[in-house]
Each structure stands twice: as structure tokens, then as C-alpha cells.
Amino acid sequence: xxxxxxxxxxxxxxxxxxxxxxxxxxxxxxxxxxxxxxxxxxxxxxxxxxxxxxxxxxxxxxxxxxxxxxxxxxxxxxxxxxxxxxxxxxxxxxxxxxxxxxxxxxxxxxxxxxxxxxxxxxxxxxxxxxxxxxxxxxxxxxxxxxxxxxxxxxxxxxxxxxxxxxxxxxxxxxxxxxxxxxxxxxxxxxxxxxxxxxxxxxxxxxxxxxxxxxxxxxxxxxxxxxxxxxxxxxxxxxxxxxxxxxxxxxxxxxxxxxxxxxxxxxxxxxxxxxxxxxxxxx
Length: 282
Description:
This protein is of the alpha+beta class and 282 residues long. The protein has six helices and twelve strands. The strands form three sheets. The protein has a seven-stranded mixed β-barrel. It has a three-stranded antiparallel sheet with strand order 1-2-12, covered by helices on one side. A hairpin with a 7-residue loop joins strand 1 (121-125) and strand 2. The two termini are 22 Å apart.
């Protein structure tokens, strides 16, 4: 089974300059975050990647204005990676994170899927001895309806807010990354408590903090959280949500567990069809 593809790029001089700048900014963000993490850790303060990212964003315009010359992901993704690196370190599965040095480490930077567009056909070229190429058609589902299950704290919210949640559009804001997607729309009113005892959460959980604007947890979600959860995106629609970009609007639709399970089976079948229809081309 193919899990990933390595693609060789042939950039021009202007693109090479851009790539080098993005790599440098990514390295800067990592080293800044690592230094701050060690500083706060020695002081006995609680620290995580999200906190450091917010602190960096608050000073970058004044202290590091050049970060705006490249994709925002170059300076944001390192904090997610740093968070994961420390998780592995504290679990004892890897060494303590180290500072990155120019020309001493392999430079790289992350770019979000919202900045890459493809048509409904993907041609896969693989470097191998047989020099064969393959193609398949991928169905594009460009819809704004995202189906969800009611969350464990659904009853924490007023009847009016419950109705609004399933009938009003929510706009995806720029405050979106691999950890979470912040939405903007009708305020959801909590009538019980805006904070709960921290509990396990899952990918696709929709939290509602005190401000009343939902946050959908994405792939790099934390393992626990203390905000009430009004709903959870079903597995069959998670990939549709993850492909949405800032300023797009979505509408949540409630489904029951049995229907969600059936939709997931259909989703898996559609993936099997894509794989089944892979054919060799010249």
C-alpha cells in the first residue's frame, strides 16, 4: 500500500530564493520556541506549543516582520512539531529537542493544503525500474454541509443555540491550523458551565469556549480538553472539513450514530473504488 509520494520539484531562481527564506523562517520559529520552552520549563511554568505560537504571533509583527514575506505555515507549523517532539521526549521515545543550525540540519518548511489545488485527476509518476505511470479519478465533493453527532455536553447549551447551531452558517476564520479550526457565526449560549473537568477528546470534536464561537479540533488535536463539546464531526465528513479554507462557510447537519456508521462504510467503499480504478498509462 502506498502511504506517501516523494515529488521532485524543479524551481526557478525566484522560487529557490522563496524556499530558502521560508526554510530560514521555519528554523527561526523552531529555535525561538525551543528557547522559550526551556526557559518556562526551568521556571516551573506550564508550557505547550499552542501557548508559544500565540506568544510568537503577538510579537512577530514588531520583532520579525519578514515572516510575512512567505506562507504563514512556515512560522506556525514549527510550534506544532515542537509540541509533538516534547511529547515524545517526556514519554521516553525520543531525545530532547535540539536547536536547528543553518547548513547543519536538513532545512524544510510546511505548506497547508489550502494553498495546493488539484483537478479531479491525479497522475502518479514513480521512479522505478519499470518506469510505469498510473492514473485514477478522485470524486470531488465540494459541499458546505458537514454532518455531526451531538456532543457529550450538547444539553449544556440553550434550546435556541442548539437550533441555531444546525440552521446557521459558520465562517472559517484565519485562526486555523492543524490543531484546530476557529469558526465565526451566531454566538452559542451556554446555560450550565463554560468549563468542565478536563476529559479525553477526539478528532473532529467541536468545543465551545466562553466566547461562544466554536472550535473544531483537527489532526494535531490535544488529548484532553476542558471546554464543553456541542458536537463531533463524523468520520465520513472529516476529510471534507479539513479541505476547507478560511472565509468559506459551512453548515452543520445532525445525524444519528447508526447513520454515521453507514456513511463511514460508504466512505471506505468510495476509497476502495478509487484504488480499484487505478490504471496504467503510457
